[in-house]
Amino acid sequence: MVRRVFLAAPLFCESERQFNSMVAGRLRQSGFEVWLAQEAGLFKHGSPDERRKVFRGDLSALEGCDVVVALLDGVDVDTGVAFELGYAHAVKKPIVGLKTDYRTFSKTEEVNLMLEAPLVRICRSVDEAVTALKKL
After folding, report:
1. Four-residue CA torsion sign, 101, 104, 110, 113
2. Which residues pair with 135 in a beta bridge?
3. What CATH class is the domain 4-135?
C-alpha cells in the first residue's frame, strides 16, 4: 500500500509554496505521509556544504518514498522537478503527475516526452491524484 509520498514541486515563489502546501495538506488529509522540500528546512545560507546536504537529503527522501507526485504546471516543468522525476524513475518509484495548467509543452505532448513517459498517469486535480494514489 502506498503511504509515503514525495511531493516534487517548484518552490521559488509564494504562490508555488502556497499551492504546494495545499496539495500536501490534501494528501495528508487523505491518509498519506508527505515529504515536501519546502518544509524540510534544509536550505539556510547556500554554502557549498549546505547545498550538498540539501541534495543528499532530497535523494534520501526520494529513495525512502513509496511514490512520487510531480507537479507539472507550466509550459515547461521546473528543472528541479524534472531531475527528481528522472531520479525517481531510475530508482523504480511510481510517479503520478499533477497538471492543473491547461498549457501544453507542444501540440502532441502534455509535458516533454522524456518526463511524460515514466508517469503512471497525469491527473488534472488533487482529488484525481488522491484517487490514483489509492489505486497503486
Report:
1. negative
2. none
3. alpha beta
Answer whether 0.85 is exceeded by the pTM: yes
What DSSP assignment string belongs to 5-33?
Answer: EEEE---SSHHHHHHHHHHHHHHHHTT-E
User: Edge to edge, what strands does the sheet with 67-71 contain?
Assistant: 33-36, 4-8, 67-71, 95-98, 121-123
Cell numbers at residue 87, please? 531520479
Contact call for residues 58 and 29 (beta carbons, < 8 A): no
Instruction: Break the chain into its structural domains and give their ranges.
Output: 4-135
How many Cα atoms within 13 Å fall on the side-chain side of residue 47? Answer: 5
Hey, what's the cell of 70?
510531480
pLDDT digits (tens, 9 = 90+) for 26-85: 999 999 999 999 998 766 677 888 888 889 999 999 999 999 999 999 888 999 999 999
